Amino acid sequence: EEQDTQENSEELDEDGLNWDELFENSDEFRTTNISFKKNDESDALDFLSTSVDELWSQISELNLDANQLIIAEQIVGNLDDSGYLTIDPILICDKYGYQEIEVLNIIKKIQNLEPPGIAAQSLKECLLLQLKRKKEKSSAYLIVDKFFEDFVKHRFEFIIDKTGLSKEEFYNSINIISRLNPKPLDNKGDA
Fold first, then answer.
1. What confidence tens digit (pLDDT) does each residue in 156-187 have?
2. What's the pTM value of the predicted model, to 2 decimals?
3. Distance, CA of 102 to CA of 84 (rounded, Å)
4. 3-state secondary structure of 110
5. Which 3 state secondary structure label does DSSP give 114?
6. Alpha-carbon distance 152 to 157, whole Å?
7. What's the distance, Cα to Cα, between the start and end of the chain in Å?
């Protein structure tokens, strides 16, 4: 059984992502510096700029008032190169004197834009946003929502026992999860 678990987890890496590395410090999964491969710096900057421009294009269609636009500007300005929100919403409230609910509402609006998972504050939230968008509120959603730490630590048998899923249902769910994009502003991924 353990060998089956290991074989199935290795199959999940076909998309080229090192999920073990991403999950290693899932609470701290954020990058605040843009990193580039040699000779790809201008392409990476162009892509990031294009992605932010596309995001602003979508935001402009939301018909936000002036205060909401200030909040949106703070949110977009505090996205890292992967698309994660790197500032605690309460800091935006404190800086501009807005109510927390106002900031959270704008975050939710931005999270409903493309790409799925944008403005998440953690890997777990990023994956849940994508699963909601795909209407995958099934066992894949349950695994990420209720058993994320166990999933990250590959405690697959524990999750199967606690959820009552068959191994086939479980691995179908893992397959769905593995196709999600842990870096929404990165153009690689299935999401």
1. 999 999 999 999 999 999 999 999 999 998 76
2. 0.72
3. 19
4. helix
5. coil
6. 13
7. 30
